[in-house]
Amino acid sequence: MTQISKKDLTDFEDEIAALYCDGRIRAPIHLSDGNEDQLMEIFKNVRRDDWVFSTWRSHYHALLHGISKEWLKAEILAGNSITINHPERRFFSSALVGGICPIAVGVAMGLQMKGASDKVWVFVGEMTAETGGFHESLKYSQNHDLPIHFVIEDNGKSVGTPTRTVWGEKEQDPTNSPIEQVAPKLYRYAYIKNKYPHVGAGKWVQF
User: Fold this and answer.
1) Rounded CA separation 7/187 (Å)
2) Helix (H, G, I), strand (E, B) or coil at 11
3) Domain ranges, ordered by start, for the chain
4) Tens of pLDDT along 159-184?
């Protein structure tokens, strides 16, 4: 179980936002807010020896998996916010939409072949969950009973466009919701993200 608090999470993102607005981070950043409670609940089940795979918005996941604030902040200042990778902590992320999914499946398959007790956790957004690569990864994992769990974090947006509008579906704004298990290896929750835009901190920064 993680020892980091909700305030620790939000304070970290606020600090990164301030650094970005001051021109200290000369690269893209993607900040989180509004889904702290759900993530903290999920990470109660993520062991420190498990493998965590994330996307370009990974700060919360990294902190909750035990990566130090100091190390993470240094990586972000170095311009690596959207590609945080910490092999020693078994934490990996990618800025490619859906790109992390087959890699995570490969790790899970390797763990199964070795008879290891470790598990793999994959965090994606709801737009990524619509891609073919995601569905192939999920189907393969379920059919082969791999030690992997997928978590869909639904904030209702594909960059700046409502995801359901993209697919021609009836638009429904996501609301804070409990974690729902929708398949044997698939979890989902919805939340409203208001504080920060898709990229940056809401302020034009000239480097």
Assistant:
1) 24
2) helix
3) 6-190
4) 878 888 888 887 676 788 999 999 99
Q: How far apart are CA 174 and CA 181, in angstroms?
A: 17
51-54/120-125 β-pairing = parallel
Angle between helices 69-77 and 6-21 (to 10 degrees): 20
With a cut of 70, list the residues of the chain below it in pLDDT.
1-2, 171, 173, 207
Residues 6+ apart with CB under 8 A from 2: 40, 43, 44, 46, 64, 65, 66
Query: Does an H or E element contain 137, and which?
Result: helix 132-143
Fold that domain 6-190 belongs to in CATH: Rossmann fold (3.40.50)
In the block, residue with structure tokens 């997928």: 150
Q: Which residues of 154-192 are buried (b: 16+ CB within 10 A; e: fewer)?
A: bbbbbeeeebbeeeeeeeeebeeeeeeeeeebbbbbbbb
What are the tens digits of pLDDT across the range 7-26? 999 999 999 999 999 999 99
d(CA 196, CA 33): 7
Q: Which residues of 115-149 are buried (b: 16+ CB within 10 A; e: fewer)?
A: eeeebbbbbbbbbbbbeebbeebbebbeeeebbbb
